[in-house]
């Protein structure tokens, strides 16, 4: 089978620039789904994605386009637009020959537009520039084109104008895909090489592998061999997503689809691995993906210790569909048995937490996130630290190193001053300013990643009235003056409340944290003392005054239902409490160290 009529492409854009809406239009025009089945944004199928309006996982859909006598097979691979998920973007790009680069006609080039375009260029994709949402009254397509030309070096003559809402320009997109994006190369008669770009666990069918065939073909009954994991399986079903799974006899060179092979364990499939055949093994694997490195960690604990096993199972399920998420068991004196979990970024952490609660109905306590540090010990050993608990004593530390990122802000020039101020306050190092136009600029700073995970996005958004956007890349580790800041409740150090902070900020943060905790912890029958300390030196202190009264006292013994309601409410509140000694600390308090002002 020839690859002449296959086109594999993706859509890249900054978040909210209209990628999912355009994907819907493309699906609708090719009648990949009937109108009855149609619901907006078919590709974002996780409930959470729909609610939050972001695309988290890369999915793929096969479209059939008729042009006269010819039928084309177009494969659309969806990509996420958030900075946390550039790893998933990279995975999707590796399976395509071309990309539609979407830029909102009213917003212009934003931080992830630039980042994703560079990623597409690195993968040698043909880029088709598309200005979207041209129906909006405030759209300024020609200015946006000029911005694209200036920053991305994309010729504005090649650009298409589209409204996914009205459908204007959608047909020209199909024409451009066929004309400019090359059909996949590869050797149809060679030994099979297929790249695993995603996987999913299905309770009935086992692991479903998403793959792109680069050479050869894959048929039902074949014995596959996965080069990295060195496991073999017999293929039960192959097919394409339309967008529902549609079985076929085989998947051929250039095609994108799925494979089911009675694979029971998630650990037998590695995203980025190459699938070949047992009887005729390919010699060289395809270039896979670099393993994503979790940069943000936090502890996740069941509120009820009896839920530990349920939590472990839930985490295992999640990690199957999200290879960038990691977890290992840990114990905390304050919280008992739980897990240290690694994430790509803050949004990723939020999403995992929400999915856990939603899909497994367990109440969990999450500790404040931290980044991964490197410590050079006096004995010359270098250790990676992803938990404040594993910071060695001060006298054993030669050098404390933290991850640094290169962050690019895209913003209206009138807010340059405000963002520079914010970046300087977060220990940022100014690098450059580049003008997109008279009104908008790209500002580049080097910043400690740890400073970005502390409510930085919100600050940046409010400093720019919502017009600023940010993207960042890890540049490496750098030595810094860091210390571990401990919190003591009733004289006891609460391990789950320890954080790593810069020495010059330690006192201010310590003072704010105990103030904040004071607000979060309710009054007890006894006095509760809160302290912040570095080593044995206490740097801040607050006390919570005792109360004597029972909450039901104010019911005057009369109304029994009201009394019961109050007690139930109290019990409900307790669900999200953890006791430290005899002090009850609410779940919110463990995160309160995050927002410090
Ligand atoms: P994504 O984050 O890139 O997937 O963006 P979405 O497709 O979710 O779109 C973000 C918002 O823009 C949604 O509220 C859409 O309804 C809206 N939108 C998308 N395309 C158009 C368009 O062509 N015209 C108008 N007026 N709104 C659009
Ligand atoms: Mg979307």
From TrEMBL:
Membrane topology of this protein: Peripheral membrane protein
Leader sequence segment: none
Chief location category: membrane
Location of the Tr-type G domain: 4-185
GO cellular component, one term: plasma membrane
An example molecular function term from Gene Ontology annotations: translation elongation factor activity
Subcellular location: Cell membrane
Alphabetized UniProt keyword annotations: Cell membrane, GTP-binding, Hydrolase, Membrane, Nucleotide-binding, Protein biosynthesis
Catalytic activity: GTP + H2O = GDP + phosphate + H(+)
One Pfam family linked to the record: EFG_C
PROSITE patterns attached to this UniProt entry: G_TR_2
Tree of life domain: Bacteria
One GO BP: positive regulation of translation
Residues the entry annotates as binding GTP: 16-21, 132-135
Classification via Gene3D superfamilies: 3.30.70.240, Elongation factor 4, C-terminal domain, Elongation Factor G (Translational Gtpase), domain 3, P-loop containing nucleotide triphosphate hydrolases, Translation factors
Catalytic activity, EC: 3.6.5.n1
CDD domains for this protein: EF4_II (cd03699), EF4_III (cd16260), LepA (cd01890), lepA_C (cd03709)
Role, per record: Required for accurate and efficient protein synthesis under certain stress conditions. May act as a fidelity factor of the translation reaction, by catalyzing a one-codon backward translocation of tRNAs on improperly translocated ribosomes. Back-translocation proceeds from a post-translocation (POST) complex to a pre-translocation (PRE) complex, thus giving elongation factor G a second chance to translocate the tRNAs correctly. Binds to ribosomes in a GTP-dependent manner.
Matches recorded under NCBIfam families: lepA (TIGR01393), small_GTP (TIGR00231)
Family: Belongs to the GTP-binding elongation factor family. LepA subfamily.
Official protein name in the record: Elongation factor 4
Phylogenetic placement of the source organism: Bacteria, Pseudomonadati, Planctomycetota, Candidatus Brocadiia, Candidatus Brocadiales
